[in-house]
Batch of 3 targets.
Target 1
Amino acid sequence: MTAAGAHVQGTPVQVPLPDGRRLHSRVRNGPRQDGPTVVFEAGAGAGGSSWGLVQPAVAPHARAVVYDRSGLGRSAPDPAGRTLARMADDLGALLDHFGPGPYVLVGHSAGGPLVRLAAAREPGRVAGLVLVDPTDEAAAVLFGRGFRRMERTALRLGLALAALGLLRPLFRRQLALLPQDVRQDMAREGFTTGVLRTQRRQARTYLDELAAWRDAPPDTGGIPITVVSGGLPGDGMNAAVRAAANASHARRAGLTPGGRHVIAERSGHYVPLTEPGTVVREIVALLPG
């Protein structure tokens, strides 16, 4: 429940970064002032609004924080680039701002590697990772010429559609699932040319950096990891890509003692929108007592 007039994703907080940039976040406080905090990392072109069904449902159990990466949503672009390392730097600074933890980090899609990297850098403050249909370097299909060509084409098309105001209608089904205030935020901020330019900047190095992880992945040690896979093709993933993705997810979960691999049977890629309850359940299961 939220007070009348309050935003379902909570209070806006501008998080300062060492170079003067600020990240726009929203915070829902948990039941205990000294309890754990859950921080959500969105997919490649998404902001904090993409967690509009999950974050509010986590808030009765723990403080829950969503944010927009630089160049997305209400966070200004980053002139220094959008490498994995740079984005993980920003996430680490955001965690510093909200205290020592313990944290459960939740990453969807391209956000999965980001939370893994942030956790590997400071594992002592991370109590668990929930990776929701994550990009994973174990999926060889990501590194073929066909996938890269498809990505470049999709980004060019997306930029053209955003410039014409035609990108948002393609996502009307997903938008309809969100609470009204979150839906309005995403409709206003999530389909601009600026978002597509940021996404394109991320894509310049993302797959090459991820490919390097095949030989030297971030070491998350014994941090508990749960991986939630979509069970259905669609959302840009054909049956073969879905099978490869889910095999990589099973491998990721299996590398950690006690790791869990969960299938969201009714979902494609957008599990936080189509089966938010599954994601909430797995987050709550990792919260420290």
Target 2
Amino acid sequence: MSLQWLGWAQKLQAIAQNGLTYSENPYDLERYQQLRQIAAEIMASYSNLEVSQVLHSFNREEGYATPKVDVRGAVFHEQKLLLVKEKEDGCWTLPGGWVDVGEPPSEAIVREVYEESGYQTRAVKLLAVYDRNHPRHGHPPLRHHIYKLFFECELIGGTATDTFETEGAAFFEEHNIPQLSLTRVVPSQISRLFEHSRNPGWQTDFD
């Protein structure tokens, strides 16, 4: 199914957010609120969310609208890749999550890998920067526009640990990848990371 509707809604929301941030004219502010309402109605009509839920999410966004940043760690050990099992959907993914404000991405991924798996790592290379919205990746739709940063991380210690968000951490061979949490990572990205591991001289991928 085409996700053109998602791009339209995200762009309308960005225009509305920027207008609400910088405009002082009350009539313009009212128009930007109407644009935000339309964006929320578009998203709600193509999802299982209520318009009020989408609006609540939009209203929490302030300042100039920019994509969010998600980091994912590629931790290899004996030609196997570390994955964690998400409690939310029972599927597997690369450890990772949002970058906090004021936090360098390389530090964010080390933190996320430890928090979600129990393993201590060191970020050594940025392997890929992907636009989650790009249709070639095939992620299910989300209301946010997201850039995904994939880091190669060197394993330096720790042991597998269940966490608040995860209930399993294990290393998998390329031909034995479990069911993936597609909102977070897709099979083509996993395959590309294995290719990077076999070709350490490759440059960073980007959309």
Target 3
Amino acid sequence: MKFNLASVALAMAIPMSGFGQDTATAVNNQYQKTVSEESFTTSPFNASAKRFNDWSISVGAGVPLMQTADLTSIKNGNGKNLFGYSAYVSIDKAITHAFGLKLQYDRGETRQGWFNTKDAAPANASAYQQVAGRTQYDAISILGDINFSNLLRRVDNRSAFRWALHGYAGIGTLAYKAFQKDEAGQRLMTEVKPFKLNSLFGQAGAGLKYKISNRVDIEGRLMYVITGDDEFDGGGVHTSAINQRSENTSDNFFNATLGLTFNLGKHDNHLMWHDPLQEIYYKMDVLAEKNQDITVCKSGDADNDGVCDDWDRQIDTPAGARVDGSGVALDTDLDGVIDLYDKCVTVPGPVENQGCPTSNPVGTVDDQSRVLEGIEFDLNSDRILPSSTPILNNAVNYINSSQGDYRVVGATDTRGTAGYNMKLSEKRAGNVKNYLVKNGVQSGKLEAVGRGKQDLKYPECDPATKCPEWKNKANRRVYFEAK
């Protein structure tokens, strides 16, 4: 269907002014309770929201090559490269989707000079070339981690997000033993202990990560290590003949590694892999001209509410009803009557009184209107989300104004075993009951039960991979029913 720019702006602005609910369909002049997690789960995009994993562990190994030194690893006097070894392990903390910190431990050995210290000097080598060195090192550093791919991602980029370019830089303490070998044999030339003033060093570089799964990444990394020490290469003290061959004031090296990152936590995604643009609920083609009409919904908009059918959670919205960003009719006072039919939009009231309060609470309420939906949970969690507070407070008022008793029912999605889900659903129901009792509901009016994954709001989501995540989230819920 065609919309001009004014219509598109209006369709996107109106949904953001209210709360979202589940389908509000009139059944025998009674409207379903219409609250869901989608209504209140808009959270700040940061690590404290705890909707993403933000801790990980990285391990890797590679090859260090001395580059700036008197004795180098790259293209020595015989035209050969001398390869050492290196390994690292780090504990990583993501602060935002584009920045994090690493506490990293490095261990390795560089090899430099005109031959490998494990070999004998070449027979045709001159006295000048009969020198080799190796350096065993241990280092602890703190590195800043910038995710350039997330930081610089184009707003119109709709491609899958599996590659990420990272930049690293930091400082730390370096301990090492430098050995030298010549015609007199091999001997220790320099030893530096950690956590001393002369043991400070810095390193910086870049890494390219590939997301193998939500839990594992693989990364190729190239770092440049600045030792700040002219004796690191095994050339001896600064006054030695070997250490005066070059005018370089410090011995630096490249460190090329290949490693794995293991993302820790209970959530599906890691903060560093989350693309903020995934929060956008609409898609638009690039405008050829500023005032050109555009095709917003390639899949159609059956109920003409301005939300495309592909992501419309209520495709039969009544004509004239205002909707939220997911296409669900608004119910501002959360009383179960959508605003279109509510005669008292801002004041809760029973559905049989068209959403307006009555002077005398109705004593008998049918089962359909007793059902309060919408208290949903994170995956594998029984913690009541702060965003559920308005729903629970509404339930307190609703239950206290009625004369019936209620069953607080906990449910899960289809992930996990039946036994695990049964226990999880019982915990969810128990937490909700405790909240209601603490806020004024008589304990005797409530009974908490768990039904695990046998009570799905969307039965077609078995297994969970058959459905979009919003349906699985709706299955992870607590609701109320009349006893």
